[in-house]
Please model this.
Amino acid sequence: MRTKAAGLLLASSLIGLGCEGNGSERVILTPEAGDYHAPQYSPDGGKIAYRLARDGKQAVWTAATDGSNPVRVSPATIQVLYPLWSPDGESILYTALGEGGFDVWVTPVAGGEARQITSDPGIEQALNWAPDGQSLLYIKASGGEVDTWMAPLGDGEHEPVLSGPGVEVGWWSPDGSKIAYQSVRGGEQTLWVKTLDGANTRQLTTEGREQLQFPGTWSPDSRELLYTSNRMGTSDVWAAPVDGSPPRQLTRDIREDYAPVWSPDGNFVAFLSDRGGQTDVWIVPAGGGEPVRATDDPGNEIDLTWTPDGAGVTFGYNEAVLNLWATSVDDGATRQLTFSEKNDYSASVSPDGQAVVFISERTGNQDLWTVPLSGGEPTRLTTNAADDRGPRWSPDGSRIAFVAERGGNANIWVMDADGTNQVQLTDWPTAENNPQWSPDGSLIAFLSDREAENINEIWTVPAQGGEPVRVTDTGGNVGGNQRWSPDGAAFLYLGLDDEGGQSLYRVSTTGDNVKQLTFAGAVGYGRWSPDGANILFIGLGRGSADLLVMPAQGGAAKTLVATPANENGPRWSPDGSMVAFRTYQDGNYDIAVIPASGGPVRKLTETAANENAPEWSPDGKTLVYSASDSDHKLVTVSVGHLLAGR
Model:
């Protein structure tokens, strides 16, 4: 287990000084132990705020821009999100998860008591300050809807500014004249802009796959919005003028480009990309042009922002990699299965319990590998330069279905368990994902929008090849996570309900008899029990994600696990007697189990790492999962020399 530091002792900005391969100067701002996230510079450029997780708690801290003189400015609690400076630099707005759920808080930077802004049931999350600093925006999630509200900094009533069916999340423009927002309705995500009084409202995008980027979506001059869109099959960066002019595509690559942020002068856009087989920072001129790589290292960058002078970028950085582990359910004995210097994840155990198939990035892109569950050397199954992902064993263990992005878009493929006889089953220019074998192994179900752009439906294709058949016709209601019932007669899926929230549905494999099973909204991870009698899913209670069980035909749900922390990724044991899941309670995710009938939660892992996606072995004796160290450092990299003359 990694030793946790008792205190934070930072030296000067020369600690951790180094160079990227492209000559960029690199400074580690936070060399001591801890998980550092979400760096945000103060308006005057003299300080940096960030979230620090240490010893099982999280809090907002501030420090000088070289990382020195760190000070905790908020109470420590279960989880903290997104510290945001007030325009005058005297306060910080943030979201905290406490015993009552997620709420919005404001804390003074110079010291004093933090003040709770929201306390309603459900989830409230801070968005941003009004430019005059006298009010703020936050989202409220309740009853299946997600709306944007405005709250005064002092006393006064909270008022909805964006509300209605579905999800509407918005941010003030820097000049305070408008609110940009993302609307999610009918399975489509589109971008809009409006004046605060609603007198002038304009739709900016129509593709239905747009995602605004928090917190850096507005250009400094309030004229454009940054967003990402996967209309081409993978995520690219776009800019939409708020005057209604056509959006501009800034990046185009077969890899994922995401998390774009404007430079302080608005002339450049920094973003994260996995082009090159690893996550790095890239920069593109805001007016268009060829992106330039700003970092080139084996770790992962997140929480990207610019330094106030625009001469550098700051981000969270983690050099840890995911590897596969196996833990005994009986005694907690743990062994490491893979020892890669690149990420190994998305493990699935073969039906005979002998092998584990997984995704590995060890060769520079996503390929599929297997490793013996008992331990041994991994074997590479796919060797194409394009990404392969989503491996699923056939019921008899002889074949593996997967998603391959060969040819520039995602399609469904199958191969023998040893990697031979790779056969493409679908061939369509849109993305097709999430292959799932029927219980008898004759069909593979998948999600596709092949008949209507941005409208995902469930399809099936014969496992030996043939013409795909459309199962559902919901008009975009299928959001994902489709699962065959154990008897092969129905699908369970996550979809949008009439209120615009997420609910679980079941539908027969012929596409009729659609039934809504949940009505509280905000659910996920629907899983049939092995006997098909019950459904395990995630619901929101008190602002956190809880485990619930309900009858497969519908009816009242029973809470299985409910804590102020988040539980996710639940999996039934093969005999249906136990449930494994991830729980976030001590500053990181651990693997735990609980009897399916209810009872005490038993943690199987209690390390400083984050454990992910537990999968049972067929005999119910072992859980296989990926894990990596959860700590991130804050790093600044100079980029001025890369941008000169561009």
